[in-house]
Design brief:
The chain is of the alpha/beta class. The protein has helices at about 1-5, 10, 20-30, 50-60, 90-100, 115-125, 165, 170-180, 195-210, 250-265, 270-280, 280-285, 310-325, 365-375, 385-395, 410-420, and strands spanning about 40-45, 65-70, 80-85, 85-90, 130-135, 155, 190, 210-215, 225, 230-235, 240-245, 295, 300-305, 330-335, 355, 380-385, 405-410. The protein is about 35% helix and about 20% strand. The longest helix has 16 residues, at about 250-265. The relative contact order is 0.13.
Length: about 425
């Protein structure tokens, strides 16, 4: 019902974007101000905010707190967006909420899809009496519907050039939008920032009287090394910890999370065991999927990742190149039409074999168009008629245990891949 009732930004793009807080504030008031009924942590940023939010939620759940988690977009099931202690929102609550919304006064401002889902999340967390909720912004920060919160902590992971038509065409302009979540006298942890972007955050925090902690200045671990299927962080304030999420980008996310935990420890009892357990089992504790996610099916190794901009591919590209030095890497890639592919092409490993696909959404860039853009950069590959066909052809190219199939480029490609029946365990 919900999917058909509203136009979702993640399916049609900027046509569904409704900036501003007026509708969210009106809806929150009509529903009894659920946004004010729980402690929250507000997370913004171009990349890494999902991993950061989920890891924080996993640690707090492990610490014994009833923890809400709001993220977007979902991959397979809409209810992935709204969780309490890792469990998705009840179907009955979704149905009851929509019925209640339909009875609201006709003159109420018409919310966007994301605004309505945000209100649903806040109502659910209030109804479940959560101790804390980790809330991820949808787009930007200043005008994002989640920004009606008055959180106990704000987090901004980093800034990269993405959604420029909506947020600004310079890092400083985008930083200013993200900085809009900083609230008066509320601490803000900033994961990665330098130069003029750092100045934007520092000045915004100073103007609000908010303590600003730059995690990049003090990551709170002495080393981070890949150790099998985990990342080992040495000498954190909670001892050595192993992270289930791997890849170089996770070092920055971990620094952000650890600095956030220092702030949260002033109000929550967070033991070393809770930190270790949260990092070690973040996926099952929070429901996180699609971040360098490794699957083994029918003797084939798959990796999928929802990274879709230059900020993500500066890490994904070298990681794939490293895998290609040990075996064949077959990359199944598809994109949406409004994504600037030119920005990520320099990071694409030349050693990989490419299979170009189009996700099954109206925003999709045709696979042939993607192939043309890659060809102009000197990268050739096979055009496929669907994600399933691309995965099948890439899988057939695997001949030994060292070979890997990578699936990504767009969240929608990863979603279709994870929904494929042939991948069911």
């Amino acid at each position: 019902m919900l999917e058909g009732y509203f136009t979702a930004f993640h399916k049609v793009g900027s046509d569904a974007y409704k900036p501003g807080l007026e509708r969210s504030q009106a809806l929150d008031a009509a529903l009894g101000y659920p946004s004010r009924q729980f402690t929250s942590v507000h997370v913004a940023g171009t990349n890494g905010k999902g991993s950061t939010a989920c890891t924080l939620a996993a640690v707090l759940t492990s610490a014994g707190y009833r923890t809400g988690l709001y993220t977007s977009p979902h991959l397979v099931d809409f209810r992935e967006r709204i969780r309490v202690d890792g469990a998705m929102i009840d179907k009955s609550f979704v149905a009851d909420f929509m019925e209640s919304y339909a009875s609201q006064p006709a003159d109420m401002p018409q919310p966007s899809y994301f605004e309505l889902v945000t209100a649903m999340a806040f109502c659910y967390f209030a109804s479940r009496n959560v101790d804390v909720a980790i809330i991820e912004t949808g787009l930007g920060g200043r005008l994002d519907s989640t920004n009606i919160l008055n959180p106990g902590l704000s987090i901004i992971t980093n800034i990269s050039l993405d959604h420029m038509a909506l947020l600004g065409d310079t890092p400083e302009a985008i930083a200013a939008e993200k900085a809009g979540i900083i609230k008066p006298n509320v601490p803000v942890v900033i994961g990665e920032a330098s130069g003029s972007v750092r100045d934007v955050f520092r000045n915004a925090a100073a103007a609000k009287g908010s303590p600003a902690i730059f995690a990049c200045d003090n990551p709170l671990f002495t080393s981070a090394v890949s150790d099998g299927d985990t990342m080992l962080y040495k000498d954190t304030p909670w001892g050595d910890i192993r992270g289930q999420l791997t890849g170089d980008c996770q070092k920055l996310n971990t620094a952000t999370v650890l600095n956030a935990l220092v702030v949260l420890s002033e109000h929550f009892d967070i033991s070393p065991d809770a930190v270790r357990n949260g990092f070690a089992d973040v996926c099952s504790l929070s429901g996180l999927a699609g971040r360098w996610m490794q699957l083994h099916r029918n003797g084939i190794s798959y990796i999928c990742d929802t990274g879709h901009n230059a900020g993500a591919w500066q890490y994904l590209g070298p990681a794939l190149a490293g895998l290609a030095s040990r075996g064949r890497v077959s990359a199944v890639l598809g994109f949406v039409a409004d994504k600037d592919i030119s920005a990520i092409l320099p990071y694409m490993p030349r050693e990989a074999d490419y299979y170009f696909v189009a996700p099954s959404v109206s925003r999709a860039r045709p696979a042939g168009d993607t192939a043309g853009l890659f060809a102009a950069a000197g990268i050739t590959g096979t055009v496929c008629g669907s994600v399933a066909e691309g995965v099948k052809k890439a899988s057939q190219a695997c001949t030994c245990d060292a070979d890997v199939v990578f699936v990504g480029g767009s969240t929608f490609v990863v979603a279709e891949f994870l929904a494929m029946e042939s991948l069911s365990a």
